[in-house]
Design goal:
There is one protein chain. The chain has two domains: 211 residues, no CATH class; 167 residues, Aminoglycoside 3'-phosphotransferase, Chain: A, domain 2 (Alpha-Beta Complex), CATH 3.90.1200. The protein contains twelve helices and 16 strands. Strands 1-2-5-3-4-6-7-8-10-9 form a ten-stranded antiparallel β-sheet, with helices on both faces. Strands 11-14-15 form a three-stranded antiparallel β-sheet. It has a three-stranded antiparallel β-sheet with strand order 12-13-16. By secondary structure, the chain is of the alpha+beta class. 41% of the residues lie in helices and 23% in strands.
Length: 392
């Protein structure tokens, strides 16, 4: 995959008949028996056909064409939580189970003369000589990455490969590998997190291969499963941080990012820092390992426990309450579900001040994402911040 994938992403109108400069791989945007025969005649004897979703002009997923078992398993790479998207997945699943192939409007075929380097890597690590891939191309942000669901021809999922598509994404994926390897040293956490099967430099970038976990989506309501997981996470590493230190850390991030936000944010930010400074005066904040993007779409459930993935934003010394704040904020912002935050804060504990600093810190992170969901997330946080500052 490599050069051709970049062309596919950036120039969907030029898919037909592409071949890379070494002539080892080719991409055809018109999938048909004649096209496959033409590829074979040109020496591209290994072909793989993918269904393009939702369209060639807005490629987000490439699902492999194959048996019913493979097609159903491939849908696991698409894990939506929004109602309309969940309905779409249910319809796709129904269509595949019914065996109706007429629904497919667009396909793309990848041909090669020999096994792809990625196939060789999977074969070495898993023993599967004929792996099948389902691809999720991610959202177009500075942190965009390609996620590949790796399967056997039977549909059994072997794991997930992350290939960053930008320099910023490379740093995120490398950080995730380091965090997961560090967390794996604590046996109590192993049932809750992916295992690193392989991590290394790869074609001027980085590659991370992770074990699969349970497939049932995690709940959208914060409950005992989340508490159990966060309790295990807190138990492996804790420290007490002076409130003034946390205030300075967030304040420094805020003053770097505030110029990226509109004027409505700037006055709120300064007021929040001033309020947090008063409420944290002489107090400490309990810190430890934090996932950093703890949300329903980064969790699955199996064997009565939460399985948590996507550790790219993890920190070893963040306030332990921030994962809870983040989960409930994300659910309220993106799933339109009421949250039980803000609650009746005990200002003497410094929790409200910690929440104010969480809102500012996460706004700083969102300001650099340039994602389609950026405005929704920022506006929800702005409203939460304004409401908190209205209270005594």
């Amino acid at each position: 995959m490599g050069t051709d994938l970049g062309v596919l992403l950036d120039h969907p109108d030029k898919l037909a008949g592409l071949a890379n400069e070494q002539g080892r791989h080719a991409v055809a945007g018109v999938s048909s028996r004649k096209m496959a025969e033409r590829m074979v005649l040109r020496g591209f004897t290994r072909t793989r056909t993918f269904v393009v979703l939702p369209s060639p002009n807005r490629v987000r997923w490439l699902l492999p064409e194959g048996s019913r078992q493979v097609s159903l398993a491939a849908l696991q790479v698409y894990a939506p939580y929004a109602p309309a998207a969940r309905l779409l997945k249910a319809v796709l699943s129904f269509v595949i189970r019914a065996g109706w192939r007429g629904w497919v409007g667009h396909k793309v075929t990848l041909g090669s003369r020999v096994a792809l380097p990625l196939e060789d890597l999977v074969a070495d690590l898993s023993g599967e000589s004929c792996p099948v891939f389902a691809l999720s191309l991610g959202t177009p942000t500075p942190f965009r990455k390609l996620t590949i669901q790796v399967m056997r021809p039977s549909g059994q999922i072997l794991g997930y490969i992350k290939l960053p598509l930008t320099q910023a994404a490379t740093e995120h994926v490398r950080h995730e590998a380091e965090i997961l390897q560090r967390l794996s040293e604590f046996s109590s956490l192993n049932p809750y997190i992916p295992k690193v099967l392989h991590a290394s430099e790869w074609n001027d970038g980085y590659i991370l291969f992770l074990s699969p976990g349970p497939m049932s989506p995690g709940p959208v309501e914060y409950d005992s499963l989340h508490e159990d997981f966060l309790s295990h996470l807190r138990s492996i590493h804790q420290l007490i941080k002076p409130g003034q230190v946390l205030l300075e850390e967030v304040g420094a991030r805020w003053h770097k990012a505030e110029t990226l936000l509109d004027s409505k944010w700037r006055a709120l930010g300064e007021a929040a820092l001033a309020r947090a400074k008063r409420e944290l005066d002489g107090r400490t904040v309990r810190c430890g390992v934090a996932h950093g993007d703890f949300a329903p779409w980064n969790t699955h459930v199996g064997d009565g426990r939460l399985y948590v993935f996507d550790w790219e934003s993890a920190s070893w010394e963040a306030p332990t309450s921030w994962d809870i704040f983040h989960f409930k904020t994300q659910v309220a912002a993106f799933l339109n579900k009421k949250s039980n935050m803000p609650i009746s804060w005990d200002c003497r504990s410094g929790e409200r001040a910690s929440f104010l600093l969480y809102l500012l810190n996460s706004a700083c992170e969102l300001s650099g994402e340039e994602s389609p969901a950026q405005d929704v997330g920022l506006e929800h946080r702005r409203q939460l911040l304004a409401k908190q500052l209205e209270e005594n």
